[in-house]
Amino acid sequence: MTDTSTLHYTAEHEWVLVEGSIATVGITAYAAEKLGDVVFVELPEVGSTIAGGTVVGEIESTKSVGELFAPVNGTVTATNDQVVESPELVNSDPFGAGWLIKVEFETLPTLLTFTEYSALIGE
Amino acid sequence: MTSADSNTPAAAPAAGIERFSPLHQAHVDAGASFTDFAGWQMPVRYSSDLAEHHAVRNQAGLFDLSHMAEILVDGPDAATYLDYALAGKLSVIELWQAKYSLLLAENGGIIDDLVVYRLDETRFLVVANAGNRFAAFDALLARAVDFDVAVLDQSDDYALIAVQGPNALAILDATAGVTDLGADLHFMKYYRITDGSFRGHPLLVARTGYTGEDGFELYLAADQARELWHALLSAGADQGLVLAGLASRDTLRLEAGMPLYGHELTLTTFPAQAGLGKVVNLKKENDFVGRAASEAGPEAGASVLVGLIAAGKRAGRAEYAIFRSLDAEAPDGVITSGALSPTLGYPIAMAYVTPDLARLGTEVYVDVRGTRLPATVTSLPFYKRVE
Known about the structure:
Chain A contains four helices and nine strands; from the N terminus they run βββαβββββααβα. Chain A has helices spanning 29-35, 81-85, 89-92, 114-120, and strands at 8-9, 14-19, 22-27, 38-42, 49-50, 55-61, 65-69, 74-79, 101-104. By secondary structure, chain A is α+β, with helices and mostly antiparallel strands. By secondary structure, chain B is an alpha+beta fold. Chain B has three domains: 19-68 and 156-255, 2-Layer Sandwich (Gyrase A, domain 2), CATH 3.30.1360; 70-153, Aminomethyltransferase beta-barrel domains (Alpha-Beta Plaits, 2-Layer Sandwich), CATH 3.30.70.1400; 299-387, Aminomethyltransferase beta-barrel domains (Elongation Factor Tu (Ef-tu), domain 3, Beta Barrel), CATH 2.40.30. Helices cover 18% and strands 31% of the residues of chain B. Chain B has eight helices and 21 strands. Chain B starts with 18 loop residues before the first strand and ends in a 9-residue tail after the last strand. The interface between A and B is medium-sized, with 14 and 19 residues.
């Protein structure tokens, strides 16, 4: 079980787990709940360079399309093939098996704390 | 059920006021997520919209549709009035029969699509979309001037609960408190209605729906809704009955090729464009609102509604443009509803395209957020239940 209070967050409803120079990125339970059942996930290619704040992937539910924003500048070192194969993992375990990408970064931008993000979503 | 004063326009509620179903608390208790639908806070899903969709296809789903508008047409001229007010010939439907019809504007466009139930020789129940309640009621009222008929907006008095899916009949059969039915449900045909009682209160049971499955729609007084809701849930407990929200209702009706007002049908859409030419009865002897425009028809080259299917998992969605080729500059159509079909497993969509692209099997391209993906024109519906 991921301790969500130790994660960083973005206003785009993504979570970021920082381990050294690697950021693991997913969408929050709140975002997954708003989307509904996720049926398709498109992720950037491993090795691609991504710019913080830009759209690098898509998360589609039956009802709508969510965009995956890169939370940091960096290089994609891994993507979650399991979630591409079984997109429902985004709903069933958004903070764990539903992770989306890992990004190697040099500097971490200012992200939201758990408390700040909780306030943002009104919880 | 009480009714508003006869032939008095209802005041539209002020914008921004949230409206709640008489079943709202039951939805909150069940952990529903809510969405705004025409000002109503309605359940969009309870847990999983895919699971709810599959339950309706395979067992049964329970929907709260209390936001829908119920308009009673009552009086000696009711039948001839409806022949004038609506596109169909309602005077010829039998007692306890239902008919899908259209409320046309003078210019031939669609104000609303509706289901009309004949409850008596001179009494009809007209069910309109929640978002068109006031537009439909105002138009129906204005058209009643020269007829001896009362047009009553009873939307606030009625709750509407739908049980949809192959197990719907068995569930209704087992529901405690439903008595005095005017027809044996086992022999009642699709698009029929009957009356009855629920715990002594008036009940209407219609074999209609918006899912492509067999099922029933139950109309009763709003203050009886919770009792019936729980009675149905108890009866359905061993029949796989699940609570189903509006998200699953939308994918179910899309698979069934059923139009949704505001998407496939609008004030600027002619029924003929939407494949609903037959709903406009030009053989009627009488005049009806929209007749002249309907006879003239849409302008030459007007787009027509088609079904689209595609490979892969990326679905074209409402408002995505259609192109005839990978490099065509101007769009040749637009999607009005689209989703990854939960039942079929591939993307489906309804779209308006230029007539030369409407032939079955035509290959077109859907602009999915900047990428043109191929799709094939197909016939509607995408899904048809096995009788």
